[in-house]
Amino acid sequence: MKLHRLALTAFGPFGTTQDIDFDALTTDGLFLLHGPTGAGKTSVLDAVCFALYGTVPGARQSPGTPLRSDHAAADTFTEVLLELTLGGRRLEITRFPAQQRRKKRGTGFTPERARSLLREYDAPGGTWRALSLSHQEIGEELEQLIGMSREQFCQVVLLPQGDFARFLRADAEARSRLLGRLFDTRCFAAVEERLAERRRTTEARVRTGDERLLALAHRMAQAAAGATGDWPPPDGRPGDPGLADAVLAGAAVARSGARERLDAARGAVALAEDRRNEARAALDTAREHDRLRRRYEETRRRRAASEAARPAHEEVLARLEEARRAERVAPALTLRAAAERDHRTAAAALAAARAALPAGLAEADPDRLAGTERDLRREAGALAAARRAEDRGAGIARERAALDRAARADEDARQDAGEWLAGWDALRRRHQDRLAAAQEAATRAEQLAGRLGPARLRRDAARERDRLATEATGAEDALRTAREDALTARTAWLDLKERRLAQIAAELAAGLVPGEPCAVCGSADHPAPARPGTDRVAPADEDAAYETHTRAEEDRSGAERRLDRIRTALAAARLRARDDEPADAPGAGPDSRDPSAAELAALVAGVERDLGEARALASGIHAAREALDRAEREHEERLRDRHRVDQRVAARTAEREALDRELAALTEELDRARGGARSVAERAAELERLARLAAGAAEAVRAAAEAARRLKEADGRTADAAYRAGFPTPEAAAAAVADDTEHRGLQRAADLWRAEAAAVADRLAEPGTRAAAALPPADPAAAAATLETADRALRNASAALASARDRAAELDALSAEAAAAVRGSVPLRAEHARVARLAALTAGTSAQNEHRMRLESYVLAARLEQVAAAATGRLLRMSAGRYSLTHSDARSGGGRSGLGLRVLDAWTGRERDTATLSGGETFFASLALALGLADVVTEEAGGVRLDTLFIDEGFGSLDEQTLDEVLDVLDSLRERDRSVGIVSHVADLRRRVPIQLEVVKERHGSTVRLRTGAPDA
User: Fold this and answer.
1) Residues 971, 30 contacting (CB under 8 angstroms)
2) In this model, does residue 328 exceed pLDDT 50?
């Protein structure tokens, strides 16, 4: 990796764009980056890191720490551009951090998101080609090309000497954290954690299995219910080695005791069953004996009741016989009753028919009545033509009525049309006036809408103006306070500075050491050093006063900038509040006052109110235009209707005259056909009625004669049937007839008596019934109580057997489950033992790990050994062959081993702790360690070539000879085509290193200057 060019804009202390040409800086292989404290030397390195990784090193990237320069103009964007060669590719990286920018519209600022750009130089075409704008893609591409993370880069390329001095003296845990970040040994730490996690998992699984075994043992103890006798329950805990054997032994004892109890319960059940069977047989015998005795007594009572009912039974039989004889007469009686009913009906119909006939026909015979019917029907048939003429006359009347109704309707329509047409001109003018008013309102609404927007802007500007005026008053007060505070702080600082300068001789004298040269005159003798006065000012007091003065000046500048911003915004708001004032607006005129926010709010409210009214009126344009169109269409339609009415009136006059002529002819014909009736239909109906009466009377005469004949024949057949059945008269036979209900009741009573008599006789003939009558009475209740006692004993024995069987089955199942659980736990215990052994070994807690070294520490120890070997070569040169670094895996105190560093002193031949080195020795040892670490990390990253290194501070602690040796070592890096940049403010380096990049601190921001001439004398 070789840097070519770095451009900083508004970054850190640099308020303007600073361009750094690294090609010119690295021509000699060694250059110096120097400047006063706080000028921004480290910010140059931060910019390189920011360009590559999007962040700056260490704590300088903490939240709330801005990268933007406070010296930059508001319109200048913070930007870092780095041009470098990576992997043979010429790249250009541009990054813009997240920052605030001015709003494009209005005042104030708005957040601007971070942006990045990666370009590659196309040598054949001589142009730059864009590769990506994505932060993620650019970060992945650069990290792949560099081969190092940001932490590795900051340790390898930007060598921070303070960090390596701490690393040199740190304990094993601190070295582990740093080396772990650089060499990314997270995979080995992950292995440790994975093994520890697996150990916890397997241990939990073993404990879970043991807890299950204990639960099974508890369940077996509950199921055994004392079957184990004096055998003790397992007292182990989850994880104990002998727990499984104890549980299995207890299970075997419980199963044996349960089987013994099961055998005893089976014998008890067999004995109880025998006793129950004997009791049940005795109960059955007693119940049968008792049943037979009660059956015999009941049969005797039923025989006595049957004999008592015999006379009634004989009466029922006699009545059944009489009813059977009457049934032979019943058909004749039914026919005679029907004939008598028909005769009465025919006689009543004949009387009614003769009463309806005219007087001349009341006593006529059937033949005369039939002839009269025929004559009347011929006369009614001759009236058909007159009926048609009458119907036509009624139709003519209806047609004339329809013509009259149409005439009245047309007259009403003609009158309505005339009245509407008379008011047409006035109606059309009203619609036209309404349409014109709506169109005028629409025009006014457009004008008011154009005024509303500017009026609202002026109102809002007036409110903003009032708010800013209040803020300006507060800002002026704050500025006066800040100026007074700044003047007070400056006066105090200058006073302390003046007093310290007056006593500077005493301050320098305090640092004199006998025998060492004075820093001012160079003399080793100090005959009369100055003495401090009573009011001595310490450098820390002056620095504190200066810091107070600086903060006060910054507060004053901030207050001035805030007041300027508020005044600028106030002027703009005041101008916007007076812009585009109409002549009649509040406060109008070139020399008028600023309109108040209330006046402008009232103006806006008035415009909004007028606009609402105008829009409401303008919304009726469409309705007014449609109303006018409808009125014009109605006017044309009414003119056409009036013309059609005139045409229909003329046609109706001709039609009415024709109907009058036809009606006169029909009236003459009908007068002849009606006779004395009111109408032809009435005459025809009278003739039809008389014909129907004559026909009905003739038929009634014939039906009455036939009914009398059938009644006479029925009387003869009924008398003959009654005589043959043994009844003296037909009336006696009719009285003896029984209906179905009575007959079924008589037959049922007879059948019941016979069935009861037969059943009693059969039961008395049974041998068992007679034998039971001679036996003594039985006691079924006592036998039932004996059976209940036997049943209860059997149930108790069966319940005990079922309980013993369930207990044995449950113990068998639980024993099998426990045996399966023990078999399943064997591989789990083996796996847990193996995993626990590996986890303890990698964690450094195993007895087999003599050095108590973790796996990650073991890997880092190998890397540290490489680093120590690489650093020793340079340390020998820097220390004139005296010191070398060695790696130690010895344990320190009670801690773990593996990451120890020792210094081998060739002068004494002994190793000693790195903390015993002096300040200068610590610096060059740290520098050697940093360079060695850079070599190892570079090799670890795939041998990425690092053409540019930066070494930050620490050279002020070296004497002249050691500084020469250190610079010789750094010169040796140039032999490997490396460029080394030394970041320091040591004055002696400015005389030794000719190529320099000076960072100049100024009031309006720092700047850089490239010097390539001879070094300072």
Assistant:
1) yes
2) yes
